Amino acid sequence: MKYKGFIQVVSTALMLFHNQGFSLSNPESCEASRAKPCIVQDTARKTAPVTNLRHSRMIGEYYHGNIAGVQALLASASEAPSKTGWEDIARYIRNQANYKPNHVLVIDLRQENHGYLNGNAITLCDLHNWLNLGKSTDQTIADESRWLQSLAVDPAIENVLTSQQFDKQEYNAGKIIPIKTLQSEQDLVQSMGFAYLRLAIADHRAPQDDEVDKFVSLVNQLPKHHWLHIHCRGGKGRSTTFLAMYDMLKNADKASFNDILARQASIPPYYDLTQIVRNAPEYTVYYQERLTFLTYFYQFAQQRLSGYSGSWTQWKVEHQLQNT
Question: Which of 169, 141, 154, 136 is nearest to 38 (CA)?
């Protein structure tokens, strides 16, 4: 692949160890805090169906407005699936677009530490899923690796919560799960033939500039006839944000800002990035910041399609948007 060298360069940089991390607390007692985060099993079972799975070309069927450029978008998105779910995703992409895993790049948008326990997706998280907030991708990967290594020391993991238990704040109601297999997502998906890239994006928030620069460079270097599969934890906010950014980078000269956000919201899970007031009001300010970021990113994408060759970070400086 032409982008293989790019991924290798990025991966080398990301794996640098930074001695900054959360406190590895006793899993028997968790409080959904930074000091005492909880381990949550996100997939109910390893054969659970993949939720929020969609591909960009569905827009042509679902959206009744401007669909210019949609057929050129080679991307799908979903939640973070189980191991079996990754097999389902491979079949889905092959059936929808005839792409095999060796022509698919998985973009993992999760800043939070996660992995695979006996084929099920697990996450180490605090109340807002911000355990690694402010950390770069290389710091996140180092912390995640250290966390997984610490879990592997024992034959079982204690107090593993279900998503429902975590939501109900039943923080000591988890079960003991013996370890049969314990893997990072990168190891799992690469063993299935996918290429892999991590971009550490905080849940509910706009992406950091360094991660935006990496994504723009990747899209610019991605050869034709290669597919992107984008995912976050639930397959909604972060995944829809990056699908919209991908659409903008390809089609900001063909479709308006409102059309791009509306058409991304027209397909499952129907996530509308313009809706900043949701069930949890404490996130409203961050949803507004994310929407503001997207308005500027659309302008940046328009200028790139007109010949601008600078990075997102450089463009922000030139437009005096350093703090945006």
Answer: 169
Confidence of residue 323 (pLDDT cuts 50, 70, 90): low
Amino acid at 115: G
d(CA 146, CA 131): 14
Element (H, E) at 215: helix 209-221
Whether residue 223 has a cis bond before it, omega within 30° of 0: no
Backbone Cα Rg of the chain: 19
CA distance linking residue 56 with residue 208, whole number of Å: 24
Q: Name residue 95's amino acid.
A: N
pTM: 0.90
Domains of the chain, start order: 4-318 (3.90.190.10)
User: Cβ atoms within 10 A of the Cβ of 176, count?
Assistant: 12
Q: Is the CA virtual torsion 50, 51, 57, 58 positive or negative?
A: positive
Please write the tens of the pLDDT for every residue from 93-143: 999 999 999 999 999 999 999 999 999 999 999 999 999 999 999 999 999
Q: Average pLDDT of the chain?
A: 92
Distance between CA atoms of residues 113 and 200, nearest Å: 10
pLDDT band at 45; cut points 50, 70, 90: confident
Residues 132, 200 contacting (CB under 8 angstroms): yes
Q: Which residue has the tokens 């799975």?
A: 53
Residue 278, both tokens: 């949701």
